Structures are given as C-alpha cells and as structure tokens.
From TrEMBL:
Keywords: Cell membrane, Electron transport, Heme, Iron, Membrane, Metal-binding, Transmembrane, Transmembrane helix, Transport. Coiled coil: none annotated. Its cofactor is heme. This is Formate dehydrogenase subunit gamma. The keyword Metal-binding applies. One of its GO terms (biological process) is formate oxidation. The chain crosses the membrane at residues 21-41, 164-186, 212-232, 252-273, 312-337, 343-367. It comes from Roseivivax sediminis.
Amino acid sequence: MSETDGGVRGRDFTGYRIAGALSALLFLVLLAWQVTVLFSADSTVQPEAAWRVASEGAGDAGSGTLASEALTARTRLLDERFRTGPSPEADAPEGALSQDFALEQTPLDDGAALTRAWSVPDEDTAAMMHEPGRVEGISSLPYSNAALYERPFARDWRLGMSDVITHMGALAILGMAFLLSAVLALRGRVPIRRGKSGRSVKRFGFVERATHWLTAVSFLGLAFTGIAIAYGETLFVPLGERAMGTLGWWSTWGHVLFAPTFFLGLVVMAVMWTGRNLPSKLDINWIAKGGGFFSDDGPHPPARKFNAGQKLIFWSAILGGLVMVATGVTLMFPFYWLDIGGMSWAMLIHAAIAVLLIAVFLGHIYIGSVGMHGAIHAMWSGRVDRNWAEDHHELWLREEEPAEGGAS
Ligand code: HEM
C-alpha cells in the first residue's frame, strides 16, 4: 500500500477545524437571536400592516387610525384561541356560561366578595367558558369559499404556520448548521484511515451522477426560493422593500420552475437505487457502531454500496420529496381537488416537511463535501480512492474489484 498523503496522523485538517469553529460561533449567535425572537412577547401572528398603518397613517389621520383599529380588532381573531374565545365548532365546555353572561367587577374588600371574585372568571376565562356560538345561513354567491364567514381552524392554521413551523424550522436549520460546524471544529474531517492509495475505483456512472446533480441543484433551488418565500420578511425587508419585491417575484416563479426537474430526478433515482437501499441486517450493526464516525482507530462497520446512513438519506429524498411534490402541486392548483380545510393541511405539511428536509440534507451535503475526506469525488469524477472505498464500503469493494481490476 502506498500512503500518498500520510493517512490519519499525517493529514492536517487544522484549517477546516478553524473554519468549523468560526461558523459554529456564527450559528450560535443566530440561534440565540432566534430563541430571543421565540420568547419575545410580540407574537408573529400580528399582521405587520397594523403597525405600519398606525405609524405611517393612511393619508389623512382619521382613516389611518380607523384602519389601524380595524386591523388590531381583526388581529384578535387571529390570535390563539384561549385569548379569542371558544370555537363554534367545539362542544360547549362543561359548566359553560350562557351567551348573555355578564362580567362583574367586584371590589375585594370583604371575605364574601373575595370568594365571589375568585369564582368570577376574568375576561379570557369567561370568553373560553361561553357556549360556542354559530352564525348560520345560506349564500347565493357563486364562489363557495365566499360563504365562509369565520373559520376557527384558520386561527390554529395561522398559529401553526406563523409561529410553530416558522420558528421550529428556523431552529432546526440553524441548529443543524451549528451542530455540523461544531462537529467539524471538534472532530475534524473524517480522514481516509490509511491515506490515499493513489488507485481509484469506479463508484457512480454518468447517468447516476447527472441524476444526482439534477436532483441536488433542483432541491437547492427549491430550498433557497422556499426560504425566501417563508422568511423573506425577516431576511430581505431590511435590504429595502424593492429588494423584497424583486426577490419575492423571482422566488415565487423559481419555486415552481425547479419542481419538475426535482421530481424527474427523484423518479430516476428511485428507479436506479431503490434495490440497493432496501434495509438489511448489516444496517443494524452499522447503526449500533455509529457508522464508525466517532473513531479513526478501528475499521468502519462493513457496508455494501450504501450504508444505513445513506439509506436514510435516500428514503428521506424519495418519500419526503414525494410528499413535497404532492402537496406542492396541490398548492399550485388551489381548490381543484381539496376544500379549504384540505388546502390548509397541504400548506402546513408542505412547510413542515420542507424545513425537516432542509435540515436533513444539510447533514448530507456536509458529509458529502467538507465532512469526509475523499467523498465528493464519488459524485464528481465518479471514481473514489480504493482506501476510501475500503474504509466505508468494504463489501461493495469486494463485489467490484474483480471487474474493476483494482487500479486505474
Ligand atoms: C451540494 C450538495 C450535495 C453534495 C456535495 C452531495 C454529495 C454527494 C456525494 C459525494 C454522494 C456519494 C456518496 C457515496 O459515494 O457514497 C451523494 C450521494 C447521494 N446524494 Fe448527494 N450531495 C448533495 C446534494 C444532494 C441533494 C440535495 C440530494 C437530494 C435531494 C442528494 C441525494 C443524494 C442521494 C439519494 C445519494 C445516494 C445515497 C447517499 O449517498 O446518501 N444529494 N451525494
């Protein structure tokens, strides 16, 4: 064996570790900022137009104030249910107060009054305890959704979209970026244990690589444009309203344009690689040993063409991607086959799976590039160093070697 680059001990990845430490610091600051936003009193369910109307006015002062009041009143409807009252769709809570129950203000000056005050709910609790009310009637408008006067689920939907998924998504993406940076700083790159041998073995053919990059570029295009759509207000408005308008326009169209190539890539990937990604007993051993990721001393757990970690990536791409495409197409054709409830769910699922996939694929991109020495060649030239193959895909190398002749 020739050790052309010195192996585990000879190889110095200090530069990578410093870069990892610096980016870990950056992502830590961004994470801290995100946590502060999460716990700040101002909830993101407030429409931002309200404060703009209030602070800038709408031409004359009178209508500006009125519009602001109307928006503020409307905002209460968009707030969490425990603040805005019961859902007409829900059953009356046990012990519900009748609709015409009136709040009493009782001074706390003697014991009896104190007891009564204790049993008289405050405004929020009283609202919650009222019987659910419902306004019903018929509409002659041709557009079915126009008959919808108030939709309590919309408040949950808005809370889910604007608060839960937006914040959890930011935490997942920034958290994963921090974790990967910290791993690079503390653990360094995964080296080729015995260094490069100088002999390569073919790993992926042209069609496999072309399909991979078609899917990868489309995914990245969808991720960036999706992030611009979801987080544009935070990320781009500080650059100016015009920048936001332009980026928003490009992102909305770009998001739709990247979808067909992503889908095509997924289908070809599924045809090429499903057989090699079916679960096997080797995967249990591979997972139990953490893929050999945490130690450079012993041999890595044996794997065929794809190890358990890669199978996880493959199935995330295929299954997650199909859910994204199905919900995405649904959103492109609103109300064609789903009603407003179904559309709300399609949007929630689309957003939730999107942020999860971005976090998962950050991990994949990391390990396929800076995280592991020698990995990127598999998808770039299609050939990997023999010692790399022995480290990570020993059983696959044994299958390939007779045909390959071991050298190039
Ligand atoms: C810049 C981004 C990316 C880089 C640098 C990258 C790198 C790589 C590399 C080096 C491999 C081969 C690993 C091996 O030899 O075993 C690979 C495989 C693969 N990639 Fe990527 N990739 C990227 C983005 C993506 C994206 C966005 C997707 C899907 C949405 C994807 C899906 C896959 C799949 C399914 C495999 C085969 C299974 C696996 O090795 O995990 N890749 N990638």
